[in-house]
Design brief:
Strand content of chain A: 5-15%
Radius of gyration of chain A: 30 Å
Distance between the termini of chain A: 63 Å
GO molecular function, one term (chain B): transition metal ion binding
Number of helices of chain A: 31
CATH class of chain B: Mainly Beta
Mean pLDDT of chain A: 83
CATH topology of chain B: SH3 type barrels
InterPro entries (chain B): Fe-transptr_FeoA-like, FeoA, FeoA_core_dom, Transcriptional_repressor_C
Shape of chain B: globular
Protein name (chain B): Ferrous iron transporter FeoA-like domain-containing protein
CATH superfamily of chain B: Ferrous iron transport protein A (FeoA)
Number of domains of chain B: 1
Mean pLDDT of chain B: 90
Strand content of chain B: 35-45%
Shape of chain A: elongated
Helix content of chain B: 10-25%
Distance between the termini of chain B: 15 Å
Number of helices of chain B: 2
Order of helices and strands of chain B: EHEEEHE
Low-confidence stretches of chain B: none
Structural class of chain B: alpha+beta
CATH architecture of chain B: Roll
Pfam families (chain B): FeoA (PF04023)
Strand order of the largest sheet of chain B: 4-3-2-1-5
Number of strands of chain A: 11
Number of strands of chain B: 5
Largest sheet of chain A: 6 strands, mixed
Radius of gyration of chain B: 11 Å
Keywords (chain B): Iron
Oligomer: heterodimer
Structural class of chain A: alpha/beta
Largest sheet of chain B: 5 strands, antiparallel
C-alpha cells in the first residue's frame, strides 16, 4: 500500500465533510462509522480516474489546527508529521460557503503547513439563499489554490473536484513560505536544527503543540520548552494574534470575492427555518417535552416494530435446528452444530433488528442537527451532576453500544467531565441488554395490558429500564464529581448547526456499518463462548456423565420416551463442568433469587452480556423440556419450574431481580478495554467494573427480597 | 464593564475584547473577533447556556463563558 495516493478530508464540523466522504467512497469504507462519532480517522477508496484508485482519509471536524480536545489532536498528529503512516499527499479542505470566513481560517492554516490543498466550496446554495454570491474563480486566484464548487449532499460537482485534485497532485502547489506573523528567525532555525527541516509554519506547530504530538518523546518535549524559554516565545499570545491576523487577511479576500446582496436592507436578518424551529425545540418547557417524546417513541418503536423480524429470526433458528437434528445422525458433532453453534449464531442475529432501529433513530437525530439542541438544553442540568451538555451524545449513543459512546467522549474538552462521562456511560442500557430485557419482560409483564389504553405495558416497562439506567448514570456521576479532582475547568462553546433534512444514504451507511461491526465483533465473542459453553455443558468430570443415563433409568423405572430423555438431559447438565461452576457460585447468588442455571449464564456473560440469551438457549435446549412445536427460548424459560416451590421459575421477583442486575452490572470486556484505551490507565476500568457490579448485586438483592 | 452575559434576548452588541486568555483563542477561532457584531437569540431553559448569532451562524456558550467577552452596545 506504500504507493497509494492518499488525500485527507479536512473541514469544520457540519461543513459537509462526511457527506463528501460518503459520496466519494460509497460503501468502500474500511472502518465503521457510528453515528455521531467521526472520532477516529475513516478510510475509503475513491476512483479518481478510470483505473486509478486513491485512498480518502476522513478526519474529525476541527475549527483550527490547534486542538482543544482529544479528537482534534488526531488531525495535527497526522498533518504535522510527514513520517506518519497516514500522512496525506494532499488535502481537500471542505468549506461551508455560507460561513466562509470561519472556514477559510482552517484552510489557510492547513495550506501553510506545506500540504498541497484543494478548496471544496460546499453549501453554495445556502449562501446564495442568504444573499451571498461567491466568485469562486476570483477566490481561486486570490488564494492561489484550485477551488471546486460542490454540493456534497446531492453529489454534484464531483467531476470538477476530480479535475482540481488531479491538477493539484500534478503541480503540488506549495505554500507561501512566510509565517502568518513573524517570529525571531533564530527560533525557527533552532527548531529546524534540532528537529529537522520543515516548512516554517510546521516548525512553529511542533514548537507550540509538542505536548499533544505523539512523534516527540519526553526529552524532546523538554528541549522544546527550553527553546520557548530561550526566545521568550508565548504560544497562547502567538496563536491569538495569528488568528486575528488571518481573519484580517481573509476578510480582505472575502470582501473582494463575495457580493453581499443584503447590504441595502441590512436592518433585520432574514428569519430562517432554523430560527422558527428553535423557538420550539429549545423552548424552556416544550424543548424537554419534545425531547422526552422523541425518546419515548424511539423505545416504543424499537420494542414493537422490531419484534416482528425478531420473532421470525428466533422461530427460523429454532426450526433450522429441529430440521438439522431430524436429518443428521444423533452424535456429539450434531449437538455442537445445532445446540452450540447455530443457537449461538441465532443469539447474535436476533439483535440485528433492534440495533438497526436504534442506530436509525440516533443517526436521524444527528443528521437533522437536533442532537446539538439536546446538548444545549441539557447542559445546565448535566453540569449539576458533574457532566457536560456534550455528555448527552455518549449517553444516548450508549443506548446502542458503550464502545463507540465512550470513544465519542473525546470531543469533551475537560478531562474531569470526560472521565466521569466515560465511567457512567455503561450504565445506559446498551443494545446488548435489549434481548435480555426483551426475553425477561415478555416473561414477567403481561403482553395484552396497556397503560391508558394506548401504550403497550411491555414498552412502558422497557422505557422504565432505560430511564433507570439513565438516572443511575446521573447519580453515579454526581458521586464521582464529589470524589474526583479537576485538572482544568470545563467549558461549553459549541456551534448550533442549521436544521437539515436527513441524508438517508448517510443513515443507511451508518446502520449498515454498525450492524456489520456488531455481527462481526460481538458475534465472534458470542459464537466462541457458545461453543465453549456447549463443551462445558456436555462433558463432566471423570465418567460421571456416562453413568447418568443408567442411574436415571434405575431411579425412574416408569419413565419412557420424551420424559425419560428430558430427565436424562437435565441430570447431565447438572453434572457437567458448567453445572459444577453454576453450583459453585449458587450460594453467592441465592439471595438474588438465582439458581445454578442462571449462575452459568452470569459467569458466561461477564465477558459479554449479550451471551446471556445464547447461554440460556444452550442450557435449556440441553437441559430438556424440549417441545419441538414451540421451541423458542422464551417458551423454554416460561416452562421452567422452580424445584423448591413447584411454581414457574421466572416469576416477577426473579424476573425483576435479573433485569436490575443486568441493567447495572459491568459485563462487557470490550467496554473495559475501551475505557482502558481512552483513559490510558487500568485504574479506571477497575473502578468501573467494581462500582457497577457492586451496584448491580445490591440492587438485585433489594428487588428480590422486596418482591418475593 | 459590559459583557455578553449582560445582553437580553434580541439585543445587539459589538465585541471589544476578552478577559480570559485560554477561552479567547477558542472564541477567536469561532469567529468572535473584536469588532464583530453579536445578537443574543436564545436562552436554554433556566437561562443557561445562551445562544447568539455571530458571523452568520449560531454559537452557544455558558453564561460564565459569555462573561469573559467584553462588548459595547450597538
Amino acid at each position: 500500500m506504500a504507493n497509494v495516493t492518499r488525500i485527507a478530508l479536512i473541514g469544520n464540523p457540519n461543513a459537509g465533510k462526511s457527506s463528501l466522504f460518503n459520496t466519494l467512497t460509497g460503501m468502500n469504507q474500511k472502518t465503521g462509522n457510528f453515528p455521531g462519532v467521526t472520532m477516529d480517522k475513516l478510510t475509503g477508496i475513491w476512483e479518481l480516474e478510470p483505473g486509478r484508485n486513491i485512498e480518502i482519509l476522513d478526519l474529525p471536524g476541527i475549527y483550527s489546527i490547534y486542538p482543544k480536545s482529544i479528537d482534534e489532536e488526531l488531525v495535527i498528529n497526522i498533518l504535522g508529521n510527514p513520517k506518519h503512516p497516514d500522512y496525506p499527499d494532499m488535502a481537500i479542505v471542505v468549506a461551508d460557503a455560507s460561513n466562509l470566513k470561519r472556514n477559510l481560517l482552517l484552510f489557510s492554516q492547513v495550506r501553510d503547513l506545506g500540504i498541497p490543498t484543494v478548496l471544496a466550496l460546499n453549501m453554495i446554495d445556502v449562501a446564495e439563499n442568504q444573499g451571498f454570491v461567491i466568485n469562486s474563480l476570483k477566490l481561486a486566484r486570490e488564494l492561489n489554490v484550485e477551488v471546486a464548487e460542490i454540493n456534497a449532499k446531492k453529489g454534484i460537482g464531483v467531476g470538477g473536484l476530480k479535475l482540481a485534485v488531479i491538477k493539484t497532485l500534478k503541480h503540488r502547489y506549495a505554500s507561501n513560505d512566510a509565517l502568518p506573523l513573524p517570529v525571531a528567525d533564530e527560533l525557527i532555525d533552532d527548531v529546524q536544527k534540532q528537529f529537522g527541516e520543515a516548512d516554517p509554519y510546521r516548525s512553529l506547530l511542533w514548537l507550540m503543540e509538542h505536548d499533544r504530538m505523539k512523534m516527540f518523546d519526553q526529552p524532546q518535549r523538554e528541549s522544546f520548552d527550553h527553546l520557548m524559554e530561550k526566545h521568550h516565545f508565548e504560544s497562547k499570545k502567538y496563536k491569538s494574534a495569528e488568528t486575528v491576523k488571518r481573519y484580517e487577511q481573509i476578510s480582505e479576500v472575502v470582501e473582494r470575492c463575495v457580493i453581499n446582496l443584503n447590504r441595502q436592507w441590512d436592518a433585520e436578518p432574514v428569519k430562517t427555518w432554523t430560527d422558527r424551529l428553535d423557538k420550539v425545540f429549545i423552548h424552556s418547557f416544550w424543548g424537554y417535552v419534545i425531547f422526552l417524546a422523541i425518546l419515548f417513541v424511539m423505545f416504543q418503536a424499537v420494542f414493537t416494530w422490531a419484534t416482528y423480524p425478531m420473532d421470525l429470526i428466533d422461530g427460523g433458528v429454532a426450526q433450522l435446528n429441529d430440521w438439522l437434528k431430524g436429518i443428521l445422525p444423533d452424535s456429539p458433532l450434531t449437538g455442537l452444530l445445532t445446540d452450540g453453534l447455530i443457537a449461538g449464531v441465532g443469539g447474535v442475529l436476533i439483535f440485528v433488528p433492534q440495533i438497526a432501529f436504534l442506530f436509525f433513530f440516533i443517526s436521524m437525530l444527528e443528521e437533522t442537527g437536533y442532537m446539538s439542541r439536546v446538548m444545549f438544553i441539557m447542559d445546565k442540568m448535566m453540569r449539576r451532576f458533574g457532566l457536560n451538555g456534550k455528555s448527552v451524545v455518549p449517553l444516548i449513543s450508549g443506548i446502542a453500544c458503550a464502545v463507540p459512546a465512550i470513544m465519542s467522549t473525546r470531543s469533551i474538552g475537560s478531562w474531569k467531565d470526560r472521565l466521569i462521562t466515560i465511567l457512567v456511560t455503561p450504565l445506559m442500557s446498551c443494545s446488548a441488554r435489549l434481548p435480555i430485557y426483551t426475553v425477561l419482560i415478555a416473561l414477567v409483564v403481561p403482553e395484552k395490558n396497556t397503560l391508558f389504553g394506548v401504550f403497550n405495558l411491555q414498552g412502558v416497562a422497557l422505557f422504565g429500564l432505560y430511564l433507570l439506567g439513565f438516572f443511575m448514570a446521573l447519580l453515579s456521576a454526581w458521586v464521582l464529581k464529589k470524589i474526583l479532582r479537576a485538572k482544568e475547568r470545563s467549558y461549553f462553546i459549541m456551534e448550533l448547526p442549521t436544521y437539515k433534512g436527513p441524508r438517508f444514504k448517510h443513515v443507511a451507511i451508518s446502520i449498515y456499518n454498525s450492524v456489520r461491526a456488531f455481527i462481526f465483533e460481538a458475534g465472534k465473542i458470542i459464537v466462541a463462548i457458545s461453543i465453549v459453553l456447549w463443551v462445558f455443558a456436555s462433558y463432566g468430570p471423570g465418567d460421571s456423565m456416562a453413568k447418568i443415563e443408567e442411574q436415571v433409568r434405575l431411579k425412574n423405572p416408569t419413565l419412557t420416551g420424551v420424559d425419560l430423555s428430558n430427565k436424562i438431559a437435565s441430570e447431565k447438565l447438572e453434572n457437567s463442568y458448567a453445572g459444577h461452576f453454576g453450583k459453585l457460585i449458587e450460594p453467592a447468588i441465592k439471595p438474588l433469587g438465582y439458581d445454578w442455571k442462571i449462575g452459568i449464564a452470569l459467569i458466561t456473560s461477564f465477558a459479554a452480556r449479550e451471551v446471556f440469551v445464547g447461554t440460556m438457549s444452550t442450557i435449556y435446549s440441553l437441559g430438556g423440556e424440549v417441545d419441538n412445536e414451540n421451541a423458542t427460548i422464551k417458551n423454554r424459560m416460561r416452562a421452567e419450574i422452580n424445584p423448591d416451590t413447584g411454581k414457574p421459575m421466572y416469576d416477577a421477583a426473579l424476573g425483576f431481580s435479573l433485569l436490575i442486575f443486568y441493567a447495572f452490572a459491568m459485563q462487557c470486556m470490550s467496554t473495559l478495554a475501551t475505557t482502558y484505551r481512552e483513559t490510558k490507565s487500568w485504574k479506571y476500568p477497575l473502578i468501573q467494573f467494581g462500582y457497577m457490579t457492586t451496584l448491580a448485586y445490591l440492587a438485585a438483592f433489594l428487588v428480590y427480597q422486596i418482591l418475593s | 464593564m459590559l459583557t455578553l452575559a449582560d445582553l437580553r434576548i434580541g439585543e445587539h452588541g459589538e465585541i471589544t475584547g476578552f478577559t480570559d486568555e485560554i477561552l479567547s483563542l477558542k472564541l477567536l477561532e469561532m469567529g468572535c473577533l473584536p469588532g464583530t457584531e453579536v445578537i443574543l437569540t436564545h436562552h436554554a431553559p433556566f437561562g443557561d447556556p445562551i445562544a447568539l448569532k455571530v458571523s452568520g451562524y449560531t454559537l452557544t456558550m455558558r453564561r460564565e463563558e459569555a462573561a469573559t467577552i467584553q462588548i459595547k452596545r450597538k
